[in-house]
Here is the input.
Amino acid sequence: MLYPAELRARVAGCVAAARPWSQLRRVALVMLVMALVRAGGAAGEASSDADWRMHGPFEVVGLSEELHLRLADGRMVRLAGVVVPSSPESSSPESSAGGPPVWRPRAEVVRAVGDWLEVHGAVRLIHADAPYDRAGRVVAQVEAADGDWLQARLVRDGLVWVRPDLQTKDDALRLLPLEREARAAGRGIWRAGGAGVVDAADAEAVEARVGRYGVVRGRVRHAQDARRYVYLNFGADWRTDPTLRLPHDTAKAMRQAGRDPLDLQGSTIEARGWIFEENGPMIEIGDGLEIEVVR
Here is the structure.
């Protein structure tokens, strides 16, 4: 296979060896060949993506500790658009011996996925725009032959959070109403005292979630447009209190959609994302869907 630089050299050599042409025709020839190469490559990628969407059904033979599906062909599938809570945090009718009732969300997800697979058997995979993540796992929505959607089932039962991002935005728009339904019914992580939402005013509780995904609720005390980010501060001290930061591309997209993040000052909001440590607990917002105004 010739790479673009080699191709340009080959074409240039052929043109030089040929009988004299006008400079315009030589340039046109090179541009035509390069355009055909690019078009062929793009068509091949599009065909590959289309074929992958159409393939199936796939047999699922296991579930990893990270709750990824293991296919019979050896590939791992990460459930697109959702996040499973990573620790036992809620009350439950099931009580542990000698202690308070404990609900273990990951165990519940394992049980729910196992029951779903037992009913439906093989699955179809509908991948996001980027079908693989950095670890080489397939990132996909998982459906049964009858159209039953695994992620929708988990969200409706309150077993996972919806995770909106650029790759799964359309799916999030369909999943978020199901999450609200689960929340209103108090299912799973949305039970009282569950993992569903943490109060931004409780800095220690937010701090305990560092390194995990979560939903944080609080009043925006200060909004600031800085050099690289827009910052939404939940507390009086931005060096220690929970904060949201929005890259300017995200803030611009929100403004184009009619939502200026600076206007959120004074509003009570819920924000979701991976919580990390940088001058206190912080969440980086990648899409406007990750912020919801409560009042």
In short: Residues 23-54 form the longest helix (32 residues). Helices lie at 4-17, 23-54, 105-120, 150-156, 169-185, 203-207, 248-256.
